[in-house]
Structure formats: structure tokens, C-alpha cells
Amino acid sequence: MLELTSENFKAEVEEHSGLVVIDLYADWCGPCKMLAPTLHSLEEEYPDVKFAKVNVDKETTLAMQFKVQSIPFVAFVKDNTFLDMSVGYVPADKLRKMIEQYK
Q: Which of the residues 32, 68, 75, 98 is marked catalytic?
């Protein structure tokens, strides 16, 4: 999964046409660790969707841009427009439905 930073965010998200699913996480977050394999599985299932992750401890500016208050926080961005988010651990089916809705 692509690691987003302040340096590559514009090229990878803002200038990307299509859906980007962004996992905002922290290394110390238990629910984030539980969600990671689900997102990796969905990444394989949807090769036409870009999946990326942001470490909120290292990229505080990006975390603030998404107004993250709780993690895991999954953001759905399409054509540089923030569409929706999912907060906390959620099952794959819920994320799959959101991807289907927005792709």
C-alpha cells in the first residue's frame, strides 16, 4: 500500500482521477492493526482503486487536513473531492459497500 506524505499527497491524491481509499492510522493503534489486513485484501480485490495510508503521527498536517479525531480513519477521495469516511474498526463488507458506491 502506498505511503502518503505531505510531499507526495498532491501527485498521488489531488491529481489522481478516480477513487483513492486512504487509511489514516498510527503504529500504536490496535484497531488500526486489525483493519490493515482487511484493507490489503480489498486492495487486491479492487485493482482499479488506489489504496494509500497515512501515519498520523508522522504526517500531522495531513491528519489535520482530514480533521481526524479518532483512528482508524478511512477517507474516500475521488477526483480530489472528499466523499466520505469510516471511523473505527469496521468489517470488510461495510468498506466494500462504500467502495462500490463511490468508484
A: 32
Mean of the per-residue pLDDT values of the chain = 97
Residue 14 to residue 33: CA distance in whole angstroms: 26
Is 42 among the residues known to form the active site? no
Expressed as residue numbers, the domain containing 72 is 2-102
47 is catalytic: no
Structural domain count of the chain? 1
Alpha helices in the chain (DSSP H): 9, 30-45, 60-65, 92-102
pTM, to two decimals: 0.96
pLDDT reported for residue 76 = 98
Mean pLDDT computed over 54-58: 98
| Active-site option among 4, 22, 29, 68 | 29
Residue 73: predicted pLDDT: 98
